[in-house]
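Sequence design from tokenized structure. All designs in this work follow the same two-part layout: the structure record, then the generated sequence. An example of the structure record is given first.
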């Protein structure tokens, strides 16, 4: 994950434009310099994105959403923006390695409008157009868990 993206999210928690009782308390207690140091620390940690597809296959519907999207529902491929393997870029966050619960909660925040989106950010539209079952399947896949439990 990119340090600039992480710092931006910590700043959003600190100023209240992104909500999470836990994260707001911690972010507000830190100076901007401390938030930057934390962002740089976590950005330097290796992720598991390179191992995402090793030894397993997503079910066909989830694989199609990740790799091709579903333009009939205005859903681009997840990996077209978040990078091959979901590892993100300088401006777009990694989606690989996210805990299942965290991913689902964030998608539901976009679905309900409780997570702000920036100009040109399509995530609210995408989240609203995915079914809860699809969101859960994508979350399990990206967390490197079996899509069938």
């Amino acid at each position: 994950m990119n340090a600039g993206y992480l710092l931006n999210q910590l700043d959003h928690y600190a100023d209240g434009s992104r909500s999470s009782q836990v994260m707001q308390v911690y972010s507000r207690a830190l100076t901007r310099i401390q938030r930057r140091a934390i962002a740089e620390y976590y950005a330097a940690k290796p992720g598991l994105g390179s191992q995402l597809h090793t030894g397993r296959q997503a079910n066909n519907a989830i694989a199609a959403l990740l790799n091709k999207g579903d333009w009939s529902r205005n859903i681009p491929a997840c990996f077209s923006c978040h990078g091959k393997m979901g590892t993100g870029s300088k401006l777009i966050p990694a989606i690989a390695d996210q805990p299942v619960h965290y991913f689902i909660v964030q998608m539901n925040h976009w679905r309900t409008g409780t997570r702000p989106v920036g100009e040109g950010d399509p995530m609210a539209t995408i989240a609203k157009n995915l079914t809860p079952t699809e969101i859960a399947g994508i979350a399990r896949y990206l967390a490197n868990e079996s899509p069938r439990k």
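Residues 1-45 form one domain. We note this feature because it recurs in several other targets discussed in the main text.
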